[in-house]
Design a protein that fits this description.
Radius of gyration of chain A: 21 Å
Structural class of chain B: mainly beta
CATH architecture of the largest domain in chain B: 6 Propeller
CATH superfamily of the largest domain in chain B: TolB, C-terminal domain
Distance between the termini of chain B: 18 Å
Radius of gyration of chain B: 23 Å
Largest sheet of chain B: 7 strands, mixed
Structural class of chain A: alpha+beta
Oligomer: heterodimer
Number of helices of chain B: 4
Number of strands of chain B: 31
Shape of chain A: globular
Order of helices and strands of chain A: HEEEEEHEHEHE
Number of domains of chain A: 2
CATH architecture of the largest domain in chain A: 2-Layer Sandwich
Number of helices of chain A: 4
Shape of chain B: globular
Helix content of chain B: 10-25%
CATH class of the largest domain in chain A: Alpha Beta
Largest interface: A-B, 28 and 48 residues
CATH superfamily of the largest domain in chain A: OmpA-like domain
CATH topology of the largest domain in chain B: Neuraminidase
Number of domains of chain B: 2
CATH topology of the largest domain in chain A: 60s Ribosomal Protein L30, Chain: A
Strand content of chain B: 35-45%
Chain lengths: 159, 445
């Protein structure tokens, strides 16, 4: 009996050690979130080489971060070069808000991106906006990382 | 889809209503549900058989529906039929009270039915076993296809007699039926009886649909559809299937509800990053702007007298609940607790507002008085929102979503209900995953 119990304990210790080391490796790899705004490249697609299609927002916010502005300036340069191209900006929210508020929030985020593109000389006529609220997550996991990747606006080519 | 069914009611004879007998208190959590025996209804052996309906077992089926309704309230404890001591026809004439008391029943439901000349005639009686008295006796005639509704109406009458409040069993729920992976959910409008029977799908799932709500007459539905990728509020006539866009707004309209007189739709319109609340008169098409603020104003809901509107706004920085007069004047913030507040819905009794609260990563369904005082949180979960009231203002239905794994697996959305006492939390069975429920008013009133 005692022997079995000891084995059990040993197994338990091994398990705990494994679990702990798994945790620490997770931390080492680093999660690409600043505050709660996503700063990484996963889920990002490109309108052209070096022109990311999306920007990320903080929870319940629609203000543009420095990184978001830099991305939008790249988009505006690209749109100035491709004068015949129209785009739709899709606004999205994470799954941690009520559905109706998230629809409004998505619309506000898409318009924040649109307004910034317009200040860089892109005609509002070339840009339409649509909000999907929390209906179209880019990352379907229920984790803070996934939620940060879902708080986004995405510029999509129309033609 | 809804045919107007004619129910002919006859009060068999009035037992002394003034003589208050057994009573069920529904204003607090009921930990001691009333033991009630629901005898199968006696079926007249001369009854005709009708297509698709087994008349012989109809009495049994009706009693089962009544039992299921009673059990779902948490206020009644329907007793096992194996212990029943009297045949249905004899019990219906005159129960042997002492025998029923032996199995610990305090109330007894009996009845009989027949189908003749294509018509279903049902009568039932409710007996108080403690006082050895009849409490109600009613008879009605309808088309046989209506037999489930008969069971719901009987349930409503008994609930009313025993609790002193209107029932909510002869009602329907409209909701969004969901299927498919989390990032490409297929959503359809669906309608079902309050007990989950008779599910019908009103849209095909080709476009995203959200937030359906009944009009007071339960014949129209207003909802959000992404038809042609233009998110707009629509109006659907359930009977004819006819649909139309509400108003001519140059942008997204969403969060629709009917006014209590059914004449207007109140909703949000989003333009240039700002959402305000508007109403549109369905007949005259006159559009009125109700709020004017640079913040998000959405999820509006009228008070039952039509004089006030509650809504949520982030004008203070974060989502909170506000109340204003129905012309948009006199805006007052009513929530000041820690956390976010959304989806306010005014109770049909006028006394409470139900809401969703988000605090420290948890979602709560709660109720408060219409000035924001007396907040009570009824249930806590990972994600739940969008309460809708039972027509008697005693029960809330809402939806709950589960946490999903690394690739979205394990995700589900289901309907739940809870009494405003905070007791009797229940999952509502639906054919598919479900969200955004809206409870109808009583169909036969």
């Amino acid at each position: 009996m005692k022997f079995i119990k000891e084995i059990k304990n040993t197994i338990l210790i091994i398990f705990v050690t494994l679990a702990l080391s798994a945790c620490s490796t997770g931390k080492k790899s680093g999660v690409a979130i600043d505050g709660d705004v996503y700063t990484g490249k996963d889920t990002v697609e490109y309108l052209a080489k070096g022109v990311p299609d999306r920007i990320f927002f903080a929870t319940n916010k629609s203000g543009l971060t420095t990184a978001a502005r830099a991305t939008l300036r790249k988009q505006s340069t690209y749109l100035r070069k491709n004068k015949d191209l129209n785009v739709t900006i899709e606004g999205h929210a994470d799954e941690r808000g009520t559905r109706e508020y998230n629809l409004a929030l998505g619309e506000r985020r898409a318009n924040a991106a649109k307004d910034y593109l317009m200040t860089y000389g892109i005609s509002g006529k070339r840009i339409s906006v649509i909000s999907y609220g929390k209906e179209r997550p880019a990352n379907t996991a229920s984790t803070p990382l996934a939620w940060s990747q879902n708080r986004r606006s995405v510029t999509v080519k129309v033609n | 889809m809804y045919k107007k069914f004619l129910f002919t009611f006859i009060i068999l004879f009035h037992s002394s209503l003034a003589n208050a007998l057994i009573e069920v208190d529904i204003t607090r959590g009921n930990l001691d549900p009333l033991p009630i025996a629901v005898s199968p209804l006696y079926v007249d052996p001369k009854s005709e058989n009708i297509k698709d309906i087994k008349t012989k077992s109809l009495g049994e089926e009706v009693s089962k529906i009544i039992e299921k309704n009673f059990k779902s309230t948490g206020l009644f404890n329907p007793l096992n039929k194996d212990a029943f001591v009297q045949k249905p026809d004899i019990a219906h004439l005159k129960p042997r009270f002492e025998d029923w008391r032996l199995i610990k029943a305090q109330a007894l439901v009996t009845g009989k039915l027949n189908v003749k000349d294509g018509k279903l005639k049902v009568e039932f009686r409710l007996w108080d076993l403690t006082a050895s008295k009849e409490m109600i006796a009613l008879a009605f005639t309808t088309t046989p296809g209506n037999w489930r509704r008969v069971a719901h109406i009987i349930s409503d009458k008994i609930y009313e007699r025993l609790t002193g409040e209107e029932g909510y069993f002869d009602t329907r729920i409209i909701y969004v039926a969901e299927s498919g992976p989390k990032n490409r959910r297929v959503k359809k409008l669906a309608i079902m009886d309050q007990d989950g029977a008779n599910t019908k799908y009103l849209t095909l799932g080709n476009e995203l649909v959200l937030t359906p709500r009944f009009n007071p007459a339960n014949q129209m539905v207003t909802y959000l559809s992404y038809f042609r990728n233009l998110p707009r509020v629509y109006l659907l006539d359930i009977e004819t299937g006819q649909q139309e866009v509400v108003g001519n707004f140059p942008g997204m309209t969403f969060a629709p509800r009917f006014s209590p007189d059914g004449k207007k739709i109140i909703m949000s319109f989003a333009k240039d990053g700002n959402s305000d609340i508007y109403t549109m008169d369905i007949e005259t098409r006159v559009v009125e702007k109700i709020t004017e603020h640079s913040s998000i104003d959405t999820s509006p809901s009228f008070s039952p007298d039509g004089k006030y509107i509650c809504f949520n706004s982030d004008r203070s920085g974060l989502q909170q609940i506000y109340v204003m007069k129905s012309d948009g004047s006199d805006v007052k913030r009513i929530t000041f607790g820690s956390g976010l507040y959304g989806t306010p819905v005014w109770s049909p009794r006028g006394d409470l507002i139900a809401f969703t609260k988000v605090r420290k990563g948890k979602f709560y369904i709660g109720v408060m008085r219409t000035d924001g005082s007396g907040e009570r949180l009824l249930t806590e979960n990972f994600y739940q929102e969008a309460p809708s009231w039972s027509p008697n203002g005693r029960v809330l239905i809402f939806y709950r979503e589960t946490k999903s794994g690394p690739s979205g697996e394990g995700f589900s959305a289901k309907l739940w209900s809870i009494d405003i006492t905070g007791y009797n939390e229940r999952k509502i069975d639906t054919e598919t995953d479900a969200s955004d429920p809206s409870w109808s008013s009583l169909l036969s009133k």
